[in-house]
Design goal:
By secondary structure, this protein is α+β, with helices and mostly antiparallel strands. The structure holds 3,4-dihydroxyphenylalanine.
Amino acid sequence: MIDSEILEKEILNAVNSASDQDSLEKIRIAELGKKGRISLLMKELSNLSNEEKKEKGSKLNNLKNIITNSISEKKEKIENIELNKRLLKEKVDVTLPVKAQQAKTGKIHPVSQVMDEITEIFGSLGYQIEEGPDIETEHYNFNALNIPESHPARQMHDTFYLPDTNDKGEKLVLRTHTSPVQVRTMEKGEPPFKFISPGRTYRCDSDQTHTPMFHQIEGLVVDKDTHLGHLKWTLETFFKSFFEINTIEIKLRPSYFPFTEPSLEVDVLCDRSGSVLKVGHGSDWLEVAGAGMVHPEVLKSANIDSNKFQGFAFGLGVDRLAQLKYGIPDLRTFFNGDVRWLNHYGFSFLDIPTLSRGLRK
Ligand code: DAH
């Protein structure tokens, strides 16, 4: 039998001089592996007498432990050396220019772009911007707008009701339109009013032309002698500016909304004959807004004397206008977060959000 001290020296020497993980692993297998030297020596023990077995066995076990420990210590050392080498090699030079594919930039969503355009146009016409909450009370969303509980228009709104009430015990909904901001804003101040209110609206509806969340811009003008003629001029001016065309023909069609009297729907003249829908000329009509003269009941909800004041209101579907202006066929693609879509239809954020950034030539 080999002298275990000599063996120990020999193996420890080998372990010490191993310079990488591979050679260390070879040593481990040659000594401690199933067919390794130490394992074979262990097997030979069975031929010895009990006394010798005890003595040599404990020596061998000792040797095995020493070698196992020295191998794992060496392993750790080599790992550290290798790590340090890698760290030295993999230094990052922060002054290098960014690789093109890492420099992907975002784009402005068409909805944000069109919101900016619309607010810019109304801003230039002297409108203020007002906002209201997305979670609205039944009162503002319906009752204050002359849509009482039993009113059939409530069903048409496919409302999302929230399970909880507010601290006054009022039922809460996700607002189905931006019209509640009319009353909220009028309650806070005194006429005259002239504002728009952009925002998100929600209805339990989903198909190619409806998404559960969509965007509207509400408009309201209330003064002593505001009339339908003002509304018509405002809408014409707005649509001309928005579609960036010199002439526009609009049609005010009688309609019904509980919060306006008379109520009308606004159509613009368009051409559907080509592959792209063109607004401003042609022989078809396209519905683009709801509007009307503010119903006296709505003024009353906001404590405004309807004998002294009157006004008009309108509601624009922002997503629809974005689809029309920029030729985007499916409304649902607006909200499914596909970056390729955004890359195609989005706008560069380096441009200041103005109309001039709008139509691409
Ligand atoms: N709130 C209406 C809707 O979502 C749109 C609307 C119609 C708003 C007429 C108005 C209006 O201000 O006068 O269907």
